[in-house]
């Protein structure tokens, strides 16, 4: 038996030029349209998801709330689906950080497991949080008899999951792709308890 789990990254938001992390900025009109376009392009049947899980940050949850009302399906908000917390660097642009902390920024891009930003969540903590969230989603789906779920979340969460599925080192997480508004499809095998990346878009 397989469970279908599609992850939708939020679209452009008001602070898209910064490391947003836990900051709760809103979608722009363009960001909303990016998400709608991905959903429309993926439709193979009138209702292809049984449930929506979402990060509670509004750049994810506002779209999720609108979508479930249209589809008349359940919505579950989960704080564990939030973006990685970047500590003191939240709200700062990459250009600002490059000018102020070039070595630390370079170390973080190249070996994030060995470089924790000031007052930030470590990559190990983030990995544990996201892994636990995905296990919880699978358990809830099996308990409720849901076959397919849409997960509205953040770039870091999707990149981390792709890294895990492709069995790449955690230090390669930032090399994974997760464009704004992009939909990525996964399958969970309930017999082998393993994930597979259905399509890498």
What do you see in this structure?
With 201 residues, this protein is an alpha/beta fold. It has one domain (2-199): Phosphoglycerate mutase-like (Rossmann fold, 3-Layer(aba) Sandwich), CATH 3.40.50. The protein contains 6 helices and 6 strands, in the order E-H-E-H-E-H-H-H-E-H-E-E. A 6-stranded mixed sheet has the order 3-2-4-1-5-6, with helices on both faces. Strand 2 (51-54), helix 2 (58-71) and strand 3 form a beta-alpha-beta unit. Helix 3 packs across helix 4 (102-110). It is globular, with a radius of gyration of 17 Å. The two termini are 24 Å apart.
Do you know the CATH architecture? 3-Layer(aba) Sandwich
Helix coverage percent: 25-40%
CATH class: Alpha Beta
Biggest sheet layout: 6 strands, mixed
The neighbouring-strand order within the major sheet is 3-2-4-1-5-6
Q: Measure the end-to-end span.
A: 24 Å
Radius of gyration: 17 Å
Number of structural units classed as domains: 1
The average pLDDT is 92
Strand content: 15-25%
According to CATH, the fold-level topology is Rossmann fold
Number of helices: 6
Q: Structural class, from secondary structure content?
A: alpha/beta
CATH superfamily heading: Phosphoglycerate mutase-like
Q: Identify the overall geometry.
A: globular
Residue runs with pLDDT of under 50 for 5 or more positions? none
Order of helix and strand elements from N to C terminus:
EHEHEHHHEHEE
SS elements, strand count: 6
Helix-strand blueprint:
Layout: E1 2-9, H1 29-42, E2 51-54, H2 58-71, E3 75-77, H3 94-100, H4 102-110, H5 123-144, E4 148-153, H6 155-165, E5 183-189, E6 194-199
Parallel strand pairs: 1-4, 2-3, 2-4
Antiparallel strand pairs: 1-5, 5-6
Helix pairs in contact: 3-4
